[in-house]
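Weekly sync, protein design subgroup
Attendees: M.S., D.O., the rotation student, P.L. (late)

Item 1: inverse folding check
M.S. brought a backbone from last month's batch and wanted to see whether the design step gives back something sensible before we order anything. D.O. pointed out we never logged the input encoding, so this time it goes straight into the notes. Structure tokens as presented (456 positions):
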């Protein structure tokens, strides 16, 4: 087991003072490519935004540099090799930034945020960028012109982000949508849905920023790659903040996620680690807002659907006919390529946690038998599902959670506190979270009526 230190470098002439501690393995992460441009998709994102009339601030660029190092550590340091308990890694980052004093003041908040999000132990150290790299933001040639966007939102290609994009366009807003171009299936879904929306709203000026960021296997010394990616939302949020700092007014980054998934109460006591993510948990979003304030940024992050179930989002979408047309192109599945061994293409499995919540939402929002999605497990009632295999395990866990909350509705108030603290929320907001959790499970229960599970 090693403790890892990732050191952000600005080219071969950048030699920060650094002495590894006991049992620490140091890895240098070059932030510039061979042309002295920012690497790992950051330079491309800067160029893409500039062409849209959006020029992020130096602090905005710092946020994305930090996110690149976090993403490298999260995906290229193995929990199996470098965690004494099989999960918790010890990671230190040395990050070059434009204003180290601001970042040192904000470091405790970011550390707390990352510890909560990934379950690891992080330590963040900030230093000044080299003098020749102090200014990375492109100057604005037309300071009197402002960016055309009045709405900023994450756009994953999933059902929630599709509904949110439709809703804001129906409200007459001009959004800049923020996407991370991840693995092929997700990227394809994002492209398909966005292109269809551009056709549907051909007269509107909304656009999208996409970031391509991936790191090669073997990047970090003396370890191997990791596939749990608990920190992925830190990259997504950072990309949105990066873009937001280039808007002409204080920004609000909208993170559309239904309340059942946002709180993400474990379905049973064994759902720990990768099965209980915190990507949009209220505590995590609150820490982001605390961090932005500590950095002196005029921005905030909100989840506009925190008190809605996915089915309610579907039923209340402001352009239902367009949603019905595009819903099959959206992608919710946790592992859309796992059916390949059965000869299937990229499609929803139909039984992972996101798929079940999606099916329940469309069952409620579009009505029975109106879900156009192709699922590998198409008919949940055709036969008894084996609880010793993945499809049966997931569905039986949902059945138990539904039965528990139906028998004891008052448990909802206690259970919503299990994934993380909610002290940032008012008593009224906590009551609404408990209620949206109960309603969300009720939607799933309606879908699973008549579904049989048993060990085989």
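Designed sequence read out in the meeting:
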């Amino acid at each position: 087991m090693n403790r890892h230190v990732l050191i952000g470098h600005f080219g071969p002439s950048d030699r920060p003072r650094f002495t590894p501690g006991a049992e620490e393995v140091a890895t240098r992460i070059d932030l510039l490519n061979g042309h002295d441009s920012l690497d790992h998709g950051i330079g491309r994102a800067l160029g893409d935004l500039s062409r849209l009339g959006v020029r992020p601030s130096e602090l905005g660029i710092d946020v994305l540099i930090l996110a690149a190092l976090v993403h490298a550590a999260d995906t290229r340091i193995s929990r199996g090799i470098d965690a004494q308990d099989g999960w918790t890694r010890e990671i230190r980052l040395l990050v070059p930034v434009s204003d180290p004093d601001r970042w040192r003041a904000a470091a405790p908040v970011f550390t707390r945020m990352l510890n909560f999000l990934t379950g690891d132990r992080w330590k963040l150290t900030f230093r000044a960028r080299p003098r020749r790299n102090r200014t990375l933001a492109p100057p604005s040639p037309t300071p009197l012109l402002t960016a055309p966007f009045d709405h900023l939102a994450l756009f994953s290609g999933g059902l929630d982000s599709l509904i949110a994009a439709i809703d804001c366009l129906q409200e007459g807003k001009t959004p800049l949508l923020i996407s991370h171009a991840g693995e092929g299936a997700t990227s394809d879904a994002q492209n398909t849905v966005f292109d269809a929306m551009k056709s549907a709203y051909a007269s509107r000026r909304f656009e999208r920023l996409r970031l391509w960021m991936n790191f090669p296997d073997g990047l970090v010394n003396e370890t191997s790659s990791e596939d749990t990616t608990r920190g992925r939302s830190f990259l997504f949020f950072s990309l949105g903040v990066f873009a937001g700092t280039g808007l002409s007014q204080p920004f609000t980054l909208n993170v559309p996620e239904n309340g059942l998934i946002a709180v993400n109460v474990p379905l049973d006591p064994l759902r720990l680690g990768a099965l209980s993510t915190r990507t949009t948990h209220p505590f995590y979003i609150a820490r982001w807002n605390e961090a932005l304030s500590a950095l002196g940024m005029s921005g905030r992050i909100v989840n506009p659907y925190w008190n809605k179930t996915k089915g309610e989002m579907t039923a209340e979408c402001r352009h239902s006919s367009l949603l019905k047309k595009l819903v099959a192109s959206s992608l919710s599945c946790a592992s859309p390529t796992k059916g390949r061994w059965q000869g299937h293409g990229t499609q929803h499995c139909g039984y992972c946690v996101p798929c079940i919540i999606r099916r329940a939402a469309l069952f409620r929002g579009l009505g029975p038998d109106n879900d156009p999605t192709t699922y590998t497990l198409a008919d949940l009632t055709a036969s008894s599902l084996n609880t010793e295999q993945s499809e049966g395990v997931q569905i039986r866990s949902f059945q138990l959670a539904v039965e528990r909350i139906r028998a004891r509705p008052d448990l909802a108030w206690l259970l919503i506190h299990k994934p993380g603290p909610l002290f940032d929320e008012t008593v009224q907001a906590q009551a609404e979270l408990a209620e949206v959790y109960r309603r969300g499970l009720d939607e799933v229960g309606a879908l699973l009526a008549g579904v049989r599970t048993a060990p085989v």
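Discussion: The mean pLDDT is 93. Residues 333-454 form one domain.
Action: P.L. to compare against the previous round before Friday.
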